[in-house]
N-(5'-phosphoribosyl)anthranilate isomerase (Erythrobacter longus), 212 residues
Amino acid sequence: MSVQIKICGLSTPETTAACADAGATHIGFNFYPPSPRFVSTHQAEKLSQNTPAKLLKVGVFVNPDDEFLEESVAAGQLDAIQLHGKEDPLQLEAIRSRFGLPVWKVLSVETVEDVARANDFANADFLLFDTKTPNGAALPGGMGLGFDWSLLEGYDGAVPWGLAGGLNPDNVADAIRSTGATLVDTASGVESAPGIKDMDKIAAFCKAALNP
Ligand SMILES: O=C(O)c1ccccc1NCC(=O)[C@H](O)[C@H](O)COP(=O)(O)O
C-alpha cells in the first residue's frame, strides 16, 4: 500500500489543490495562534469549502479548550483532531467522545523513553512521532527539525503511527525506507518561507514519498 502523506499548515485553496494533485492524502489546518501557519476559524471555513473531497482535513491543536475545539472542528469540517501539546490520555478520550472524530496524538521525540510514551496512548487513533523542539523554542512543531529515526527501531505498538519532523523532498524517501512509516508529515519542508507553501516542493515531496 502507498504511504499516506500529510501536508501540514495549509492556508490557501491553491495549495490545497496542489496537495490533491500531487497525491497527498491529508492536509493540516493549524489552529495554534503563535504559528506562522495559523488559520482563523473564518479562514478554515473558507478553505474547507474549497478543499478537494479526497483530502482528509486534520486540525492541529496545542492544549485546546473545549470551546475553541468546538468552533474549529465545525469551521474546518475536520476529519481528525491532532493534539500537539501536553494533552493526557484522559483528555484524549474526552475529546474523542465529544466530537466523534479520530484523535491523533503527537509524541515529541528526543530519546527512546519518548517513544515508549506511546504505551500511555493506546487509546489514540493514530500516533505521530515528531521531533521534540528545544526548551524555549517558539513552537512545539513545524520547525523543520529532525530526530534520530533509529529510536523507532523495534517499535511495535498496536496504534497506527506516522513520522514527522524535518522531512523534505530530499530525505522523505530515506525516512520511509529507514523507519517503515506508513504516513509522513511535513510543514516547513515544503515551504519557501515560514507559512508560505511552495507548490513545486509539495509535488516533489509527494513524488519522493510515493516512490521511496
Ligand atoms: O507547523 C506548525 O507551525 C506547528 C506549530 C505548533 C504545533 C504543531 C505544528 N505543526 C504540526 C505538524 O504536524 C508539522 O507538520 C510537524 O511538526 C512537522 O513540521 P516540520 O518539521 O516543519 O516538517
